[in-house]
Design a protein that fits this description.
371 residues, Aspartate Aminotransferase, domain 1, seven-stranded mixed sheet, binds pyridoxal-5'-phosphate
Length: 371
């Protein structure tokens, strides 16, 4: 079976986890500190590691003082994690349409949805691409908005020759099992604003002031103060140990991901029915490979046909404005709704090779001629 995505690990991660187990200190400690230091070096920025990408987004919003009934602009075509992280703070995710080339937030639509309650914009780096990020920052500056980048898909991606995470307001990554690098589960908040990082360092540990410093030394605070709502969202040494090994492999991983996506693009270039998402894979590290089918088709039938040929596929994503929790009467997002009917995601992970990509491409092209 060719998997849609998977964790790509070897004996290095297994040995690292074993070392933590042998240490008998599994919680947040020295490995988390080291992982943060290495991430800081890689991104040239300040980093706070947390338990998931969703937690990173929630704490980043809270660090900006986002509160009940504030409004956050976000594209509807994203994982429900972006929406749930916003609503966890009490704020309201305002579902925006997407640009039909990049599949990232449509600024024209975001501008229409701006209100006096709008406090932030959350650009989602769908599949690894960042869209027109400098326009988003200009728009945010003009309207006094914070920018919290949902960069769950974009670890390693560059924009104007700078790594995502090395510039901007607040950037949140996910290291869940299938991301560009994994720590098993995990995520991080990145910002040059030290106040944001200090806030997250405390709020990930129930709001206990400066507890992170104790934890790094395998200790904990016994007398402390708490000023803000906090959560148990810190990262464990077990997860950080995996992340540290993965970080050593970024060059290899990213080279493979880019070359596989380029091969798909080349295979589909002349296809009548398949349209690739426009990405420059010299800059973008693709996390997933969604594409658009430009003819009427039944997605579930196509997916089960491909499954019979040992090819797993995915759907990134059901628009969030279709979900009961976030549904708003009268809201239609024409581009999102059109593109949602066209998309399907093909396998992409560093344990695949070009032969696999050719097999998947040919199988898809053949079946589209028949249906
Ligand atoms: C776009 C997007 N945002 C946020 C997240 C949340 O990350 P995590 O699963 O680590 O909570 C994901 C995870 O898949 C995602 O795809």
């Amino acid at each position: 079976m060719i998997k849609l995505s998977k964790s790509c690990i070897d004996s290095k991660e297994k040995e690292a986890v074993l070392r933590v187990l042998n240490d008998e200190y599994l919680g947040m400690g020295d490995s988390v500190k080291k992982f943060e230091e290495k991430l800081s070096l890689y991104l040239s920025n300040n980093v706070s590691c947390v338990s998931s990408g969703t937690a990173a987004l929630q704490l980043a919003l809270e660090a900006c003082g986002i509160k009940r009934n504030d409004e956050i602009l976000v594209q509807s075509l994203t994982y429900v994690a972006s929406f749930q992280a916003i609503s966890a703070t009490g704020a309201i995710p305002v579902a925006c349409d997407i640009d039909d080339k990049s599949l990232t937030i449509c600024l024209k639509d975001a501008k229409k949805k701006l209100s006096n309650k709008t406090k932030a914009i959350m650009p989602v780096h769908y599949s690894g691409g960042v869209g027109n990020l400098s326009s988003i920052y200009k728009f945010a500056k003009k309207n006094n908005l914070r920018v919290i980048e949902d960069a769950a898909h974009a670890f390693g991606t560059e924009y104007n020759s700078k790594k995502v995470g090395s510039f901007g307001d607040i950037i949140c990554f996910s290291f869940d099992g299938i991301k560009n690098i994994t720590s098993g589960e995990g995520g991080c908040v990145v910002s040059s604003n030290q106040e944001v990082i200090n806030y997250v360092n405390d709020s990930r540990l129930l709001g206990i002031e400066k507890d992170s410093e104790k934890r790094y030394l395998s200790e904990r605070s016994w007398s402390f103060n708490v000023k803000n709502q906090g959560w148990r969202y810190h990262m464990s040494n077990l997860n950080a140990a995996i992340g540290l090994e993965q970080l050593k492999k970024v060059n290899k991983f990213f080279k493979i991901r880019k070359s596989l996506a380029k091969r798909y693009d080349a295979n589909f270039l002349k296809s009548k029915y398949i349209s690739s998402i426009s990405r420059n894979y010299d800059e973008v590290v693709p996390h997933i490979y969604p594409l658009r089918i430009m003819k009427k088709f039944n997605r579930e039938e196509l997916r089960s046909y491909l499954l019979k040929k040992n090819i797993q596929t995915g759907l990134h994503y059901q628009p969030n404005h279709f979900l009961d929790k976030f549904f708003k009467k009268k809201l239609t997002l024409p581009v999102t709704e059109r593109i949602f009917n066209q998309i399907i995601t093909l396998p992409l992970h560093p344990d695949l090779n070009l032969k696999d990509i050719d097999y998947i491409s040919k199988t898809l092209k053949d079946v589209l001629k028949e249906i």
